[in-house]
Amino acid sequence: MFKGVLLGFLAFAAYAVSDAFVKSLRGSLPAYEAVFFGAAMALAALPFIKSRNDRWREVLVAQRPGPYLVRSVASAIGSTAAVIAFTALPMAEAFALIFLMPIFVTLLSVLVLKEHVGWRRWSAVVAGFIGVLVVLRPGFRALGVGHLAALVCGFASAIAMIAMRVAGPHEKRITLYGAGVVGPMLLTGVLMLLQDFYWPNLHQWMLLLGYGLLAALAAVLLMLATQKSPANHVAPTQYSQMLWAVFLGYLLFGDGLDWPMAIGIAIILGAGLFTFVREEKVTRWWKRARIV
After folding, report:
1. Angle between helices 91-98 and 119-136 (to 10 degrees)
2. With left for phi above 0 and alpha for psi between -120 and 50, is residue 139 left, alpha or beta?
3. Of 258, 169, 177, 217, whose CA–CA distance to 44 is shortest?
4. CA 249 to CA 164: how far, in whole Å?
5. pLDDT digits (tens, 9 = 90+) for 150-185
6. Rounded to whole angstroms, how far apart are CA atoms 152 and 129?
7. Are the beta carbons of 198 and 33 closer than 8 angstroms?
């Protein structure tokens, strides 16, 4: 079990460094273009995710097309919003708002899945939004498109998670991964045809390679982690991304972190982690779904 948890930490470290690569583009390419090339390079993980009994067409063909389509569109919106957020905000601040995802999952569980949510999880929802107010401090600081994009990313990620829960054990891991990669590539590819296209220069190609290939590596590590440990032991390691965000933000981009923001981040992370623990105990859905 220890090996699985360690692989989980390594996977989310790779995700964090991948985000640092796309932030290093500093908006020199449109967000949809960065997502397209990143998703195309993330296809490199497919040979490692594909099991012996899987067929290549299952990357595109799902047993339940509805959740597949929802996950594809939500992943495209979330990935594009994430690039915008990381471009405009310090990494730690962007992650703090994106990590509202478990709170949004709770809200969508009530609205979409008709789950019963007790007072403990509702308290975590309230605490999470209080943490957002502490981070954003509306009226005391300027808010911009980056803050909205981070919130959109968190909400879109929650929709993708709900779609994965609806799919449950019916879909193979390669199909779930395909929805999260092929969907963004196709939708952002359409945007590239409709909008201006900028061919990346050598420096931008190197950053895009780091962005896409590290995300592919993270997906493979996460798959290996869940093969060695239960998913409910691996999933909390995603919160280590915040430590990487603070470290990489300071080291690479000179991002600062004041006390109100640190307190708000702690509240959001605490609420999200508590929500995860409660959902695991109450719904046990981690035992019915694959994590990708």
Report:
1. 150
2. left
3. 217
4. 31
5. 999 999 999 998 888 887 667 888 998 999 999 999
6. 14
7. yes
